Amino acid sequence: MIPTKQDNANAIPADQTFNMFGVLLNFLVTPDETGHEVSLFKGTLPPGVVIPLHSHDEPEVLYVIEGPLEVYREKGRSPQGWSATQAGGVLAIPGKVKHALRNTSSMPTTVILVAQEELYNFFRSIAQPFEAGQMPAPPSAEDMQQLLAVAAKYHYWMGSPEENATIGISLG
Question: Which pLDDT score, from 0 to 100, does residue 142 have?
Answer without folding.
Answer: 84
